[in-house]
Amino acid sequence: MTGPTPSADTLAAAAKAAGQKGRPPVHLWNPPFCGDIDMRIARDGTWFYLGTPIGRAPLVKLFSSILKREGDAYFLVTPVEKVGITVEDAPLHAIDFDAMGQGTNQTITFATKTEDTAILGPDHPLRVDRNPATGEPSPYVLIRSNLWARIDRKSFYRLVELGCHNDHDGHKWFGLWSSGQFFPIIPSSDLP
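User: That's the sequence. What structure does it adopt?
Assistant: Structure tokens below.
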């Protein structure tokens, strides 16, 4: 640790100043590590500071704009500071999507709780992890810079309605088309 750990207000002010002309270039910033702060992103996408939910959506959006992942660790970074935070599952939360077109011509655009958008495709793939004990799916979409968003349940149910069966890697899969690419969700043989 190189000095006192910055407060949430200090980080918010630095993020606001750094991002006045669009999204801050956190991928270019490698400041010294200043320690961990008591900030946590819960599995449902709620941000907490000192154990209390952050109720101001603009502040959460601002913090999410300076979020960076290095390996399995998450940090809030500014040009001069880097602090560690806790992420229970995924740092972002996809709460809706729009689908245009059909079949192989379909395009699916996700929106997150923090107002990020991403078009499902080669740069923003879908992954579905399955709980080994229960088989329950946990769907995610890559939003930006190695930051994944967990897709909420209602959106996942809507996505399943758009799904179809297709050959993938020599097997039949149930999945989705977007941006000319097929994204497998579950082997067809695993469906009842």
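The helical segments are 8-18, 57-65, 153-162.
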